[in-house]
Amino acid sequence: MLWTAAMYLAKEKKPHWLMSLPATFMTGVCITYLLVASFKNGGLAFDQTVGYSAGLIISMAVFAFFLWKKKLVLK
Q: Among 1, 23, 44, 72, which is most buried by a count of CB atoms within 10 Å?
């Protein structure tokens, strides 16, 4: 929902930062949980260092993808 709202704001040429920054954070939280949580809790049980690093990298990659798509949409 946050990513959808961020793209809507970007299309309307309004400040999307109110939605894209929380969306980036929540993406990182969800990915990190998926990677670090135990199998019993629905995760993949990776080492915490790997999970935190991958969560950060993936969330930044998704944010960069959002900015790239925003640039394409606004042309």
A: 23
φ and ψ at residue 47, rounded to 5 degrees: -60, 145
* Domain total of the chain: 1
Q: What is the mean pLDDT of residues 2-9?
A: 96
| DSSP of the chain | -HHHHHHHHHHTTS-THHHHHHHHHHHHHHHHHHHHS-GGGTS----HHHHHHHHHHHHHHHHHHHHHHHHHHT-
pTM for the whole thing? 0.91
Residue with tokens 């990182």: 28
